[in-house]
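For the sake of transparency, this paper describes our internal protein records without simplification. The tokens are whole numbers drawn from a learned vocabulary of local backbone shapes. One such record is reproduced below, unchanged from the form in which we store it.

. . .
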Amino acid sequence: MRMFPVPMEITEEEKIFGGVLSVRQVVYLLAGAIPAVSVFLMLHFAPLFLRVLAAVIPAAAGPVLAFGEVRGMKMDRYIVNLALFLKRRRKFLLYGGTCVAEKG
């Protein structure tokens, strides 16, 4: 009978970078840092506080997506689920003075 190694923790992502960060986390951190630096450098004609303000948004989005959780769900998955929920069609019916929502 063949034996295959099974990881101890199969619900967590594998931490590849230094045993601390997963590939997903590194990608989100880079996806936040690269646009932040690019915006800061491209707006060289603007005052410093506007350059910093424009660079803070993508710089803050990277760590939020990499490390943030809502109700035990990773932030990126939460945003996708929220978008799908808001996009879905719903019907609202009135029965006996109460509003009942149905999937449409």
Notes: The chain has three helices and four strands.
